[in-house]
Description:
alpha/beta; Spore Coat Polysaccharide Biosynthesis Protein SpsA, Chain A; 10 helices; globular
Amino acid sequence: MIKKCLFPAAGYGTRFLPATKATPKEMLPVLTKPLIQYGVEEALDAGMDTMAIVTGRGKRAIEDHFDISYELEHQIKGTSKEHYLTEIRDVITKCTFSYTRQIEMKGLGHAILSGQTLIGNEPFAVVLADDLCHAPKGVLSQMLDLYEKYQCSIVAIEEVPKEETNKYGVIAGKEIEKDIFMISDMVEKPDPKDAPSNLAIIGRYILTPDIFDIIKTTKPGKGGEIQITDALLTQAKKGMVLAYKFDGERFDCGSIDGFVKATNYFYELEKEKN
């Protein structure tokens, strides 16, 4: 069983300025819950109870969110508003949270490496909170089923329009089962004319612990950053890395367009419940 999930959460969220000037982008709400809480709940549903969060300056709101607010609890105790805290109380009770800081922004690979002290020498999941997913069975739960069979690193992928490949890491590979690909190549944000496919990596990973040593020797790539795609390609060449075309909806909440779509989608879900 994989018990730890890593959340890289040190980015500036510049596409949402000025809203993210003093508020972490991971704390932007879709309806009544911040993005990062959706990710934590997905990990919890997959059986993970240890959340490792890589933060940066100005991100204290994340730590405060996953903590007890005694004054607030006291003020609304016994009132009609108390039930609003039920979900977050449940998360806090069931999970352990630990934090470390990424001192410099050097890319996703570096952010994951910054979390090594929280993960140790065991396989783990990675969730990028601004990729908000909804599925009958959570994306991480689907990926864990796959990990139990193959025992290797796995990335979640989806098909994107060819003209949008320059926004993603893109894979090439052989389909070994329905929607499961053995990766032969990975390219970070390729021009559409150079993209090996239209299968784009989204913010869900299962990683084996040897990835840390690979990242340490990975040279800066696209944008001068240490890219996790470069490290995973090295891992794929040494052994095996799989890409999984998951079942579900995914919203890029790092963009205004995706954030609005997610809000509308989850609002409709809530209306159906009531």
